Amino acid sequence: MELLKQLIAVSGASGDESRIKQFILDYVRTSSSEWKVQPQIIDGKEFQDTFILIFGQPRTAIYAHTDTIGFSVAYERELYKIGGPKCEDGYELVGSDDHGPIETELMVIEHENGSRSYEYVFDREIERGTILTFKPNFTETETFIQSPYLDNRLGVWNVLKVAETLENGAIVFSTYEEHGGNSVGFCARYLYEKYSIRQALISDITWVTEGVPHGKGVAISMRDSMIPRRSYLNRILDLAKASGIDFQLEVENAGGSDGSALQKSDLLIDWCFIGAPEDNVHSPHETVYKYDIMCMVELYKYLMKHL
Fold it and tell me: What's the pTM?
C-alpha cells in the first residue's frame, strides 16, 4: 500500500489538482514499462489538470477523480468548505502560503441561531485564498486502512493497479468532482468522438450503510441521486456473478459521482459506480477494509476484459 500512502500525501483539493496530476503522470511514465500494455497519454493545455490513458482498442472508460475536499482561507481567520468535509474541533489541517508551510487546527464556532462557522488556529494570519487539507495520517492493519482522502485516492490507486494488466480500455483522471464537477463531460466527448466509447465505470469510494457493511466485497451501486440505465447495469451484474468475486448491491437516495456528470451531459453514455465502502466519510479517519479493496481491483480487471 506504499503507493496509496504516497498518493494521500499529495494535496489536491478541488481546483488545486496540478500537483496530484503531476505525481500520477510521473508514476505512469516511470512504471508503465512494466505494464502489459504501454498506454498513450492524452494531455495538453486544453485538458487543464485532467488527463487520459488509452490502452489498445478501448471499449470502456474508467473515471477516477483526483480531487479531494478541503478548506479555503477567507477573512478574519474564517474557513470556507471545499466540497463537504466533516468538521470537528481539533482536526489537523496543512497547507502552505508565501510565508511558508502551515500546520494548523480547525475550530468550529457554534452561533446562537444554530448555524456554524469555521476558523483556523495559527500563530499568524494565513494568506487569503490558501487551500488547507486534512493532515495525512495513514494507518494500516491486517484488516483495514484508515486515512484522510481514501475518497478518492483509493479510487485512483485502484485504476493504477488495473492499468498494470489492462489491454483495452481508457482511464480518465478527472477533476472537481467534490465541488460541482468539471472535466468529465469534456473527456467523455473526446472519448465518444475519437474512440466511440459509450460505456463507463466510476472508480470511487462509497459509504458504509445498513445495507452495505465492511468486509462483504465491493459495492455495485444500482442508484444514488442518479440512476444508471438498467440494461447496462444488468450486464455488469451478470458479469459480476460470473466472476465469482464478492460484491454487494447498493441502493441509495443521495450522493453523486462522476457518473452524475455523465448522466447530466448531452451524451448517451452508460455508466455504473463500483467502489469499496468506507466509514467516517469525508473525515480525517476514513476507513476501508482491505478485503473490499481487493475485491474492487479484481472486479474492475474482470469487467474491463468482458464489457
Answer: 0.97
